[in-house]
Write a structure and sequence with these properties.
alpha/beta, Rossmann fold, 5-stranded parallel beta sheet, 4-stranded parallel beta sheet, globular, binds phosphoric acid mono(formamide)ester, binds norvaline
Amino acid sequence: MTVRHFLTLNDCTPDELQQIIHRGIEMKNNLRAIANDPPFKNTVMGMLFEKSSTRTRVSFEAGMAQLGGHAMFLSPNDIQLGRGEPIEDTAIVLSSMLDIIMVRTFGHERLEKLAEFSSVPVINALTDSYHPCQLLADMQTYQEYRGSIKGKKVVWVGDGNNMCQSYMNAAKQFDFQLVIACPEGYEPNKQLLDQLSAHVTVLRSATEAAKDADLVVTDVWASMGQEEEQAKREKAFADYQVNEALLGLTKDDALFMHCLPAHRGEEISENLLEHAKSVVWDEAENRLHAQKALIEFLLTQSN
Ligand code: CP
Ligand code: NVA
């Protein structure tokens, strides 16, 4: 059996990613047709969350219900994984009963281990290194508002974190130029930067980076698991707030995205989510549609 996983954007070809995004748009516009004839009756997804979530949990759970299936929330506090049962054993057992598994965890290698031992598709719902499902929603949102992102200038402001690294993969897979503005010491993985140097540049100045941007994206300064670094990071990122002045440097038709949750007064100014260039609420909703398309893709491609 061929099992297709989605651990990073590189698990799909550029054509497959385009196909998933177009299908996400189609599913969004045809909610009723899918509800009348749900394609995945009796299909069960396991959702393993080792970190908090609002959007990811709700979008996968609602998405599975809309497709005719079920989703089961699994927390390490409630299952034997939290009491030391190995991830390999957990993967074998879960995948013998479930049709598809979604995982949010810390180290990316933990997700890779689970996928290695799983006999059904595994989806990365965020690790310390990547958040590819968010990129499907972001790329769908850009496509809906402005058409193809190919050749556009995308600016990442802030931490070289899991979202930033997924934007780096997206730069190659969707063929855009990514400019990252981040303070020294908070760059993304060096090896990834070297690999993607044709599509990714790092600058220190957010204002220099933002000039003529088509899309500006940011994220929290301290990600889940980095809470104790909050004060240190607030100092390091003080010059990296996305605000009206910064968006003023971008193209007139530029968009602003943030995966959420957002910290107003830190990485964004107080009212930025309501700015004319902001599309964050559509971006959040598109998690639902893009992931339904992803689930359909993985289930139909695994055979
Ligand atoms: N953007 C995102 O993944 O949000 P949650 O942490 O709420 O799932
Ligand atoms: N970088 C953030 C993204 C949250 C969706 C984190 O990992 O906490």
